[in-house]
Amino acid sequence: MCKLIVVLSIAISAVAQDKSSSQVPKDDATRVIEFYRIGSHIQDRIWPGWSKIPAPLMLVTADTEFLTHHPAPPAEMKKVAGGWYARPRQFPANSQATFPAFGPPSVIVIGGPASTESKTSTPWLFTAMHEHFHQLQNAQPGYFDAVKALDLSKRDTTGMWMLNYPFPYEKPEVARGFAHLRDLLLRALQEQDQKKVSELAKEYVTERHKFFGSLSADDRKYFNFQLWQEGIARYTEVVSAEACANWVPKPEFAALADYEPFGAYALRARAKTLDELKRADLSNWKRVVVYSFGASEGFLLDRINPQWKEDYFKRMFSLDPYFDAVR
C-alpha cells in the first residue's frame, strides 16, 4: 500500500490544480490516504495475510464517484489524476458497503463522513476498515459459491436476501432466548477474574447451543452467517481502532475540523459496541443486533479461545466450532 499512498498524496494537489476535470474533495482524499496508511500499519497484525488482498475503494460524493486502488479500473471510469478515476454518481451518497461492483475484486463503496453513519473523520476510517475486512472475506477461495450453497436466497439474485431474510425476530420465544443469551454474554465480558470468565463462558456456550438448537435449520444458518460475517467485521473495526491507539496521523488528517485523536476514539470504540449490545432488542432491532452481538462474541473468544482466528476462514459462516471447543 505504501507506494499507492504516495501516489494519492501527489494526486491531492494534482486534482486541485486541474479545474477542467472532476475533483476529489481535498478532505475526502486526505481521509482515504489515512485509511491506506493505517491499513498498511495494522492489518496483518489483526488478520495474517490481509495485506495481500486488493483494497479498491470508491468514494461517493454528491455528484461523482471516485475510484482508487483498483487493479483494472473499468472503462466507464475516467482517469482524473494520480490513482483516481471518476464517473457520475450512481450509488447513494450515504453508502457503506462492499461488493464486486465491477466483478472481482470487491470494492468498498462509501460516502464521506457527513453523509454516512460515521458522521466524523476518525470513526469513518474504522468503518472503512470494517468494509476492508469484508474484502478479505469475499476474497477467500470459494466464498461466493459457499454463500450460494447456503441456499437461503430463495431465487433472490440481487443479494438483498442478506438483509431481508424472514428470520423470526418477533417470535416471543426467539426474542426471549436471544435476550437471555445477550445478558449471559455481557456478564461474561464484564467479569475480570479469568477463572470466573471460564465458568461463565461454559454456561454461555451451553445456553448458546440451546438457543441455536431451537431455530429451524435455515434460520440457524442465516443467523450464524450474519454473526460470522457482519459481527466479526464489527469486531475487526473495534480492534483496528485499538491497534491504532498510539497512531500519529498525517498532519493533514489531524488538521481536519472533525478530527478526533485515535487514542480517545480507541478508548470508546469497544465500550460503544458493548453498550449497543446491552440495549439490543431482537424484536425491534431485527438484523441490526448481529453487529454488536457478533463483535462481542469475538471479544469473548479472544479471552477463552485465543487461537480461534486461525480457523476462521477454514470453517466459514459459523462461530459454533470456536465455542464448541470450550464446552
Condensed summary:
This protein is an alpha+beta fold.
Mind explaining what this structure looks like?
- By secondary structure, the chain is an alpha+beta fold.
- The protein folds into two domains: 126 residues, no CATH class; 164 residues, no CATH class.
- Strands 3-4-2-1-6-5 form a six-stranded mixed sheet.
- The longest helix has 27 residues.
- The protein is globular and about 55 Å long.
Order of helices and strands: HHEEEEEEHHHHHHHHHHH
Q: Percent range for helical residues?
A: 40-55%
In whole angstroms, how far apart are the ends?
41 Å
Uncertain runs: 1-21
Indicate the proportion of strand residues. 5-15%
Radius of gyration (CA) equals 20 Å
How many structural units, i.e. domains?
A: 2
Task: Write down how many β-strands occur, each being a DSSP E stretch of 2 or more residues.
Answer: 6
Main beta-sheet annotation: 6 strands, mixed
> What is the average of the pLDDT values?
92
What is the global morphology?
globular
How is the largest sheet built, in terms of strand order? 3-4-2-1-6-5
| Quaternary organisation of the protein chains | single chain
Category from helices, strands and their pairing: alpha+beta
What is the overall number of helices? 13
Search tags:
single chain, 327 residues, 6 strands, disordered N terminus
Write the SSE topology.
Blueprint: H1 2-17, H2 26-46, E1 57-60, E2 64-68, E3 78-81, E4 84-88, E5 96-99, E6 107-111, H3 121-138, H4 143-149, H5 161-164, H6 172-190, H7 194-213, H8 217-243, H9 251-254, H10 262-279, H11 282-285, H12 289-304, H13 320-324
Parallel strand pairs: 1-6
Antiparallel strand pairs: 1-2, 2-4, 3-4, 5-6
Helix pairs in contact: 1-2, 2-3, 3-8, 6-7, 6-12, 8-10, 8-12, 10-12
